[in-house]
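FAQ: What does the model actually see?

It sees only this:
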Amino acid sequence: MIQNPLRRKLQNKQTTYGLWVTLESPNVTEMAVALGFDWVVVDTEHGHLDFREIMEHIRVVRGTETSALVRIPEVQQGTIKRVLDIGAHGVILPMVGTGADVERAFRFGRYPPRGVRGVGGERAVKWGLEFDEYLHYANEETLLIPLIETQEAAENIDQILDVPGIEAIFFGPADMSSSRGFLGQWESPGVAEKILEIQAKAATKGIASGILSRSVDESIKRRDQGFEMVALGADVNLLIRAVRENFAKLGRGPKPCS
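And it is asked to produce this:
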């Protein structure tokens, strides 16, 4: 049985495409599955989504070729445990700065002897119907993906990449720029080069890299640069982008501020 489709694709060196999900309706993820996205990231670091809404997004990917990842608000044992227990294929770890931060997350997200994740009987084990099967593969199949989004993380990248079990990292250009003193810039001076430098270093260790793009052209560029995980955008931003494109072609300008 294929437990985590994204992990298999990354092992096969495929370029995978994802959608950032910020809206509460599981119809968004259901459409992503129908469109053939390889993965979605349900974003709970920012915004308003709660655990019930996370569960509904995860529910619609079961049995499909789309994996569901959850970006949690912060690295906490209870949050990681609950997200995995409701069936997430992986967790995006925000604002980690050192190898010790990432190792702590792995302890929270792995069963003993590697970690301290408690054994429960929730959705991940199909309410106990596949208890033994899930416990057998969970430590191997669950992806824990650190976000490289601060200057501290960039400076400590060697120790982060050396944490046992890391199979992918994800970049946050805007926060990395902010941490370098360029608040509000997507890729401030030196950030683009630093991201590619880290990406190349990760590749030598067999670790995949992911990044969010803001346009079709940027998605193509990231694909051609060798990123194995390319987010085509976020649900809201893609909608806004499409509407603006339509309005521009119709000759309608932006709505004036009230």
